[in-house]
Structure formats: structure tokens, C-alpha cells
Recover the amino acids of this structure.
């Protein structure tokens, strides 16, 4: 178990949420759980930053939200990726890859 | 796309607040529940799970806040909250609000009033199409700043023929004259109206089309074909009932028939160096006009597209050079230049207006300083409120933002209160100062109104003022620890920096007020000096009026009515109560013409460099009637006729200039024009300020009317008793001399002298008014700060008194504290004055901008007022009871 969850930069958080939703639509808690799972516990989101990011993504038109009943018969908002969101995810992923490769090269030359 | 979505969602949050809130609650609630369920699945007991979840709920509230503040509508909502809060806070202290709004209303109102005047005058473009391409073309002589001269017709014809820079060029008579209209439709009496000779292209150069009919054709410029007339709208309406059938009919002007060919539109206004023209006639070139050195016209032209003034100027200079070579006698030493028409129009008004704009800017700054001080005092009292808000988590900038909202609100309230003040001020300015008489050449000031631009200006000013006076006090609240004000018995603030800011504001107010008072003082002194100038005549009980006299060759020929002077004396002089009567071609303060001549007995001068002097024509007894002293020799008599030797009377300046060491009486000159008349000096009279009390005296000489004529004579009558009572009998007597010749411009000489200073009176009175306002505001500011400081130092004063200080010591303590800063302000003000008042020198007369007497007097005045303003709070300090003071918190 890691000691402290690392902090995510705002841009990367958006990208990760988009990626999560690319696999299947889900509600807020589901996103949080999935991210924790996929990062093997490195990233542990608090509700505040998560929902703030979700609001931002929705206002930017990258995700769509819809009220649906959950298993326990409560309502929750399920989010799906829009076409625009998919495009953004693709470009962000490519950009991220380039940055990582570049940093890697810099760090290797010592 | 996302912008629209963002906007739409935000709007929903704004207006469906409750529903959006509930939805967020629900979503987060579900989140919590699922988290609890997850924990329980992981084996945590239900109780523990719920407890952990409840702990989470705290951070959930934070999460809610975070989400809510993420959208743009949050900003709008908080601004709206700030506004609400500000309104409440202002209502809670009505006294403060009233004083602040009143102060701002005065400061802003002064600014918007002056701006309204500027808006109605300077800022309005000329009412012609494309006014920036309109220029005036001048001849020049010699070098130096004032070397422009009006043009002659032959030179104009050459300018026009040879130049490429202009679309079209035209000329108009530089003086114009009164034209006698016989009894017209609506008028039973003949009347005289101001009219102007213009060349055919005049109206088309300006780009103005007539309302009815047409303007002049080129062939109508020649005498014989030139009996057409274009009327102004006002004359057409007033004199002829606006009858459209008037076109094509004839009216009698100066006893001759003229066909009405056109009527100008209502908005067309032309009063270039004159009263508003009512009719225009073709130029009708006469014999004199053909003289190449007979300069009587003003040339106006429109630049071709793409040609600049500088290019046109260069071309004209070249053309002038060529003309000098072709006509070395008439055009000797001549040059040419081009000036843009809009600039030429505004001249002196611009200086006065700029000075006034600066002055009201100062007044506004003083008002803002006062309000800033009020806010500082109020801010100190509200420290507890700010401390609580910050302790509860409000970020510093939020508190500042709310205070700024209050300031802006005060500013807008002040602006709103300023508008009725402005309306009142505009009306006052318009009527009291007779702005409609400002005589701008090319436009009429219908009114000074608050229009869209003025409104916009007011808004900008009050918002800027709000930021100006609000910023410092708002930022000041952030100083100091948060917990200090919350402690029991805490005074509430750290005094040091705050009181220094207040005192610095007082010092700046004093400095600004001093500069304004200096400006006003200088102008008042200028006025006093100006009024003390001896005009050279005795205007008391003198009545004047203008009358046109038949004259064939307008400005040069023999008198058209040789018996004129004699008839004048016998008829008008016979009216009971008349002491004496005379006539002159140019009345004082109304300008004159010039002539060149050769002086006999002195080496002849080069053509083009002839000595010259102002020229006028007078009847015998003129000088005596006007009260101009005869220094040597004699006045004209009825024996000086065409048959006898040509004589002139000269003024003292001319005598000193040309015959400094000898008696000029008996000396002679020879006129430089085609006449070459030989004239002997028979008398020397005292100097008269012909062009204005503040203009230097020019050389002048007079010829008797009986030897040289003039088409318009100013009748001068000295009466026993009030002059205006004699208007009717004098007019009757004149009608006997010249029937069917109307008399115009009946004026009292004393008023003419007084009005000649009119253009200075307006800025002087306004500036003084504003300086007084500044003084009052500064005094109020000083009193306020001194009062506040006494209240703050009550404890300290109590201790001092308890330790043995007497009331005089207390008084001195308070006064010293206040006056130190006032004196600093005065020193700063003196330094600033020395720099700033230099800008006023165009408006001053006989006073240096750095006049020490004015500076000294103003400083003493300001010190006195400041002492008085500080004295009243100081008296309050003296009455402090130590026992109460020591318990004061």
C-alpha cells in the first residue's frame, strides 16, 4: 500500500477520466474505483477533485451525463464519452506519449 | 460549441439553483452510499463503515463547494451578493453615504458639465462633408508666426489655375458688409442684414447643397450679371414667411433688384469673422478687385483625395515663388501657405477649455481624496467585521472585492446625483455666459445638452473614480493580523500606516487646491489689469450705430455723399440732449483695415515693403465726440473737402514711429496705392486700443470723410444722460439725412468696451468657481481628518491632560498635527503651480504665471482656511474630560 496517494495534475486527471469512460459508461463512484484499480492504488481520488473534473469535462462537451437508477434503486448520473471527447482523448494520449518519451530520453543521458 | 454549452449549463445553475443543488446532493449522496457498501463488502463492520462515511461527509461538503465554485455563474452570483451586501452596508450608515455621494456628485458634476460644453463645441466635427479636407489658402509676407494675409483676386485666379492639389477653390469677401433690404413681405421697415460676396464655387467647395433653387454660376461672377442672391434659411423664414414661390422673384437690396435664386438649408451657418450671414451675392469683381495687391478675400479650398496639407502647402509656396517673379512690384516678398479649416476655427477656445478640463479634473481628485478618507475611517470601524469574515475562510481578495463593489456603487450613485447637477450647470453656462454668442465661425451652438456621449463620459468617470478612491482603503483592510481585532478591548487596527495614508491624502488635496486657486488668482488679476487699461477714449454716455452710406468705389473712391458729415451735425446735432456727434469708418474694438504709404522726406521704401498703418475715415468732431484727446494740431473741419489739400490725422504711436524726433504736423505721406495721393499731417490724437484692451496699440491714420469715402460709417453720438433714451430721436434724425437707409447695431460704447473682455470673462469666472469649490472640499477634508484624529487620540489626550497639560497645549498639539501636513501640501502645491500655470500663459494678461504676489496671497488664504478647519475639531479636543477619556476604547 502506498503511503500517500500522489497528486494528479489537472490535465492528466481529465485524460484519465476520459480513458476510463472510453471503456464503458459509469457513474462517479465507479470512475473513482476504476481509476484506483487501474493505477494499482497509486492514484486515490477524493470526491472533490473528481466531481470538479467531471463538471469541467461536461461543460466542455467531452462527456455527457444522464440520470439512471443504480442497482440499489437510487439515482446516479452515468457519464458517457462524446465524439468530441473521444477525439480529445486520442490527441491527449498521443501528446502524453511524446512527452514521456522525451523526458525519458533526457533522463537517460546522464 | 462548448462555450454555448458552458453558458447554458451555467444559466441553469443560476436560475434553478435549488434543483441543481438537490441534484448535486443526490449524486454525492449516492457516491457515499456506494462507498459505504464497498467498505462493508471489504469486511468492515456496518457501524464502522457508516462512521467512516460520515467522516467523509465533511470532505463532501468541501467537494460540493468545490464543484459549485467551479462554474462561471459562481462569479456572477458572488458579484451579485457583493452588490446586495454593499447596498445594505451603505444603507446602514446613511450619514456617510449621503456625504460621500454629495461630494462625488459635486466633483463628477463639474467634470461632466465642462465635458458637455466641449461636446457641444470642440468635439463636434464641422457640419460639412469630409471636413478634414477643407483648407484655407493664404498669402504670406515675411517670416514669423503671424505672417498670413488675405488674398487678392488676381493671385487667387493664378493659384487656382496653377495648382493641382485641390478639387476646387473659391473665395469670399474677408469683411462682407451690411446689405439694406427694402421693406419686405413681413417687415414693414427696411432692415440691414449681414451679407457676403462669394465666388461661384463657394458652396460647392464646402459641399453644401441649397435647400431650394441653386447657387451661383461662374458667369454670374462678373458685374452686370451678378444681381442674384442666395438667402439664409433664417432670413427666408423670418422676412419672407418661408414662401417657396419666392424663388425667381426679385427683392430690392441697396435700392437695386436682385433675383432670389436659392435658399440655404437651416443648418448652414456662416459667421467667419463676422455676425451670421443672412444672404450671399456673387462676387461681382469690380475695378478695385482687379488690383493684384488689393487683398480683400479669403480663399477656401478642398484637397483632392490623398493629398496632404503639407503637400498642398509646398505646391502653393512654389506657385507663389513663380508669381513673385512675374509680378515683382505687386507681389513682392509674397509667399503662400495652407491651413486646415477645422483647426483654424477653434483657436483660443481650445486653450480655455483645456485649462478648465484640467481644473475640474483637480476638483474631482480632491473629491476622491475626501471620499477615500471617509472610507478609511469607516474601514477602521469595520475591522471586526473583516476579521470575522477572514477567520471564516473568506479569501483576502474576496473582502477586497466586496469593498471595491461598495466603492463602485458609491461612484455610480455619485454619478447619478451628478446628472441633474450637470443639467443645471449646462443651462447656467449657456444662458449666463451666452455660449450661443461664442461666435464660432462655422457652427451654431444650439444648446449644451446631455447626450449619449456625455452620459457615457459620466459613467466612465464615476467608475474610474470609484476605483481610484476605493482601492487604497480596500487594500488597507488586509493589513494587520486577523485575530487582533477580535480580541477584547482591541482598538481594532494598527494606526500607523493608516493615518499616514490619510494625512498624505490631505496634503495632496491641499496641493491641488493651491494650484487651482493660483490659476484662478492669476486670471482674476489678468482681468483686473485688463479692465484697468485705458482704452484711449471716454465711453461714458456714448451711443453708436452703423449706417451704410452710398459709395461707388467701395474702399477707395471719393465720398459718395459729400454732405454727409455736415448733414449729420445739423440734423442729429439738433436733437435736444445731444452734446456732439461724429462718424468713423471703424469703431474701436471692431478691427480695421490697413494701408501702405511712402513717407516724404525719408528714403523711399521698396515696393512690397512699404511702411503701413491702420486706416480709417472720419467726420469732423469724431475725436471730440469719442473723447479721444487731441495732442497736437487740429481735427478735421468742414473746410477739408475734395478741392482742398489732402490731410490726415495720425495717432501718437504713428507719430513716434515715423517722426520720433520732430513734430509730425506739417509732414506728409504719399499713399502707396494707384492713387498716390499726397496727404499732410494736420493733427496728432491719443492712442486708442483699436483691436482690444489686451492688444498692443497699432499705428493709425485717418482721412476726412469729405476727401475719402467709406460705405459703412459708424455714427457716434455723445449724449447728456443715458444714451439709450436717445435711440429713437437719433434714428429719426438719421432718416432725414439718408432716407431708406436702415440703421443697425445700436450699441452703447461702454458695453462695447466691457464686452471686448468677454472672451476672458467666461474662463475666469468658471475657473474661480471651481477653485472655490476645491477650497471648500479641501477644507471639509482637513476638518474631517482632524476630527477623526482627535477621536482616535482621545485616550492619549486624556492622559496628557491628567498629567498636567493645559487646554492651550492640547490645542497646539492638534493644530500642529494637522498643519504639518497642510504646510507640506502648500509647499508641494507651490512647486506644482510653478510648473502647471505656465500652461495658462495664453490666457493671461499683464501677469507672469509665477507671479509671487498671487502665490503668496493664495498660500496665506489656504493656510488660514486650513487653520479654521482644524480649529473646530481642536476645540473638541480641548474639552476632553480625562476621566472619560481614560476609559474610552
Amino acid at each position: 500500500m502506498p503511503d500517500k496517494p500522489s497528486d494528479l495534475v489537472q490535465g492528466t486527471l481529465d485524460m484519465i477520466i476520459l480513458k476510463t469512460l472510453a471503456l464503458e459508461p459509469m457513474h462517479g463512484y465507479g470512475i473513482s474505483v476504476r481509476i484506483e484499480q487501474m493505477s494499482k492504488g497509486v492514484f486515490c481520488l477524493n470526491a472533490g477533485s473528481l466531481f470538479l473534473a467531471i463538471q469541467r469535462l461536461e461543460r466542455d462537451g467531452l462527456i455527457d451525463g444522464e440520470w439512471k437508477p443504480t442497482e440499489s434503486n437510487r439515482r446516479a448520473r452515468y457519464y458517457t464519452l462524446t465524439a468530441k471527447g473521444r477525439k480529445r482523448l486520442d490527441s491527449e494520449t498521443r501528446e502524453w506519449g511524446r512527452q514521456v518519451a522525451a523526458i525519458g530520453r533526457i533522463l537517460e543521458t546522464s | 460549441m462548448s462555450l454555448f454549452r458552458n453558458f447554458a449549463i451555467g444559466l441553469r445553475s443560476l436560475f434553478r439553483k435549488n434543483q441543481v443543488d438537490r441534484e448535486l446532493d443526490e449524486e454525492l449522496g449516492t457516491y457515499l452510499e456506494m462507498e459505504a457498501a464497498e467498505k462493508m463488502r471489504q469486511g468492515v463492520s456496518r457501524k464502522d463503515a457508516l462512521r467512516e462515511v460520515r467522516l467523509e461527509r465533511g470532505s463532501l461538503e468541501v467537494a460540493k463547494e468545490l464543484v459549485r465554485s467551479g462554474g462561471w455563474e459562481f462569479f456572477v452570483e458572488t458579484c451579485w451578493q457583493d452588490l446586495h451586501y454593499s447596498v445594505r452596508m451603505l444603507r446602514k450608515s446613511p450619514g456617510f453615504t449621503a456625504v460621500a455621494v454629495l461630494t462625488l456628485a459635486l466633483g463628477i458634476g463639474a467634470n461632466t458639465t465642462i465635458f458637455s460644453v466641449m461636446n457641444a463645441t470642440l468635439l463636434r466635427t464641422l457640419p460639412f462633408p469630409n471636413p478634414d479636407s477643407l483648407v484655407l489658402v493664404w498669402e504670406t509676407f515675411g517670416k514669423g508666426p503671424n505672417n498670413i494675409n488675405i488674398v487678392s483676386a488676381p493671385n487667387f485666379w493664378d493659384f487656382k489655375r496653377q495648382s493641382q492639389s485641390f478639387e476646387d477653390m473659391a473665395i469670399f469677401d474677408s469683411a462682407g458688409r451690411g446689405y439694406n433690404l427694402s421693406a419686405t413681405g413681413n417687415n414693414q421697415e427696411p432692415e440691414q442684414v449681414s451679407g457676403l460676396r462669394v465666388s461661384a464655387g463657394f458652396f460647392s467647395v464646402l459641399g453644401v447643397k441649397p435647400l431650394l433653387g441653386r447657387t451661383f454660376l461662374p458667369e454670374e461672377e462678373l458685374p452686370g450679371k451678378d444681381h442674384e442672391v442666395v438667402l439664409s434659411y433664417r432670413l427666408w423664414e423670418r422676412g419672407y414667411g418661408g414662401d417657396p414661390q419666392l424663388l425667381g422673384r426679385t427683392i430690392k437690396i441697396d435700392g437695386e433688384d436682385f433675383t432670389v435664386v436659392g435658399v440655404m438649408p437651416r443648418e448652414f451657418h456662416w459667421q467667419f469673422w463676422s455676425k451670421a450671414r443672412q444672404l450671399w451675392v456673387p462676387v461681382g469683381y469690380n475695378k478695385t478687385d482687379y488690383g493684384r495687391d488689393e487683398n480683400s478675400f479669403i480663399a477656401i479650398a478642398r484637397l483632392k483625395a490623398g493629398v496632404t496639407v503639407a503637400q498642398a502647402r509646398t505646391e502653393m509656396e512654389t506657385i507663389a515663388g513663380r508669381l513673385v517673379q512675374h509680378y515683382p512690384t505687386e507681389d513682392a516678398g509674397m509667399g503662400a501657405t495652407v491651413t486646415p479649416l477645422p483647426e483654424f476655427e477653434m483657436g483660443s477656445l481650445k486653450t480655455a477649455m483645456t485649462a478648465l478640463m484640467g481644473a475640474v479634473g483637480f476638483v474631482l481628485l480632491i473629491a476622491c481624496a475626501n471620499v477615500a478618507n471617509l472610507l478609511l475611517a469607516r474601514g477602521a470601524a469595520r475591522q471586526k467585521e473583516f476579521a470575522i469574515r477572514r477567520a471564516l475562510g473568506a479569501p483576502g481578495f474576496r473582502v477586497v472585492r466586496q469593498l471595491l463593489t461598495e466603492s463602485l456603487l458609491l461612484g455610480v450613485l455619485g454619478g447619478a446625483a451628478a446628472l441633474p447637477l450637470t443639467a443645471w450647470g449646462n443651462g447656467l453656462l449657456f444662458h449666463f455666459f451666452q455660449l450661443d454668442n461664442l461666435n464660432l465661425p462655422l457652427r451654431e451652438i444650439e444648446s449644451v445638452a446631455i447626450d449619449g456621449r456625455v452620459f457615457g463620459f459620466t459613467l466612465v468617470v464615476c467608475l474610474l473614480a470609484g476605483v481610484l478612491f476605493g482601492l487604497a482603503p480596500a487594500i488597507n483592510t488586509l493589513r494587520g493580523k486577523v485575530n487582533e481585532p477580535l480580541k477584547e478591548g482591541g482598538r481594532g487596527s494598527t494606526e500607523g500606516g493608516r493615518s499616514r495614508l490619510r494625512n498624505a491624502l490631505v496634503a495632496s488635496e491641499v496641493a491641488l487646491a493651491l494650484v487651482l486657486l493660483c490659476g484662478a488668482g492669476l486670471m482674476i488679476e489678468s482681468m483686473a489689469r485688463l479692465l484697468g487699461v485705458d482704452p484711449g477714449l471716454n465711453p461714458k454716455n456714448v451711443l453708436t450705430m452703423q449706417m451704410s452710406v452710398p459709395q461707388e468705389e467701395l474702399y477707395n473712391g471719393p465720398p459718395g455723399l459729400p454732405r454727409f458729415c455736415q448733414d449729420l451735425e445739423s440734423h442729429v446735432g439738433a436733437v435736444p440732449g445731444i452734446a456732439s456727434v461724429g462718424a468713423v469708418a471703424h469703431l474701436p474694438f471692431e478691427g480695421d483695415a490697413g494701408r501702405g504709404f511712402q513717407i516724404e522726406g525719408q528714403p523711399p521704401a521698396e515696393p512690397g515693403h512699404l511702411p503701413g498703418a491702420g486706416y480709417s475715415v472720419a467726420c469732423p468732431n469724431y475725436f471730440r465726440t469719442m473723447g479721444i484727446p487731441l495732442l497736437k494740431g487740429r481735427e478735421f473741419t468742414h473746410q477739408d473737402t475734395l478741392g482742398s489739400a489732402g490731410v490726415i490725422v495720425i495717432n501718437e504711436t504713428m507719430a513716434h514711429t515715423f517722426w520720433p524726433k520732430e513734430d509730425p504736423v506739417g509732414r506728409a505721406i504719399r499713399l502707396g496705392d494707384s492713387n498716390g495721393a499726397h496727404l499732410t499731417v494736420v493733427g496728432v490724437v491719443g492712442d486708442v486700443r483699436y483691436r482690444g484692451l489686451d492688444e498692443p496699440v497699432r499705428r493709425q491714420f485717418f482721412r476726412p470723410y469729405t476727401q475719402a469715402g467709406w460705405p459703412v460709417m459708424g455714427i457716434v453720438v455723445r449724449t447728456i444722460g443715458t444714451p439709450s433714451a436717445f435711440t429713437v430721436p437719433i434714428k429719426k434724425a438719421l432718416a432725414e439725412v439718408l432716407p431708406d437707409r436702415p440703421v443697425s447695431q445700436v450699441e452703447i460704447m461702454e458695453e462695447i468696451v466691457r464686452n471686448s473682455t468677454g472672451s476672458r470673462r467666461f474662463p475666469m469666472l468658471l475657473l474661480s468657481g471651481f477653485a472655490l469649490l476645491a477650497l471648500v472640499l479641501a477644507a471639509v477634508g482637513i476638518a474631517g481628518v482632524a476630527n477623526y484624529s482627535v477621536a482616535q487620540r482621545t485616550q492619549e489626550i486624556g492622559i496628557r491632560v491628567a498629567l498636567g497639560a493645559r487646554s492651550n497645549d492640547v490645542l497646539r498639539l492638534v493644530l500642529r498635527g494637522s498643519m504639518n501636513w497642510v504646510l507640506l501640501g502648500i509647499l508641494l502645491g507651490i512647486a506644482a503651480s510653478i510648473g502647471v500655470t505656465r500652461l495658462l500663459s495664453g490666457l493671461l494678461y499683464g501677469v507672469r504665471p509665477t507671479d509671487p504676489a498671487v502665490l503668496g496671497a493664495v498660500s496665506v488664504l489656504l493656510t488660514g482656511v486650513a487653520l479654521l478647519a482644524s480649529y473646530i475639531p481642536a476645540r473638541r479636543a480641548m474639552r476632553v474630560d480625562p476621566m472619560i477619556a481614560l476609559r474610552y476604547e
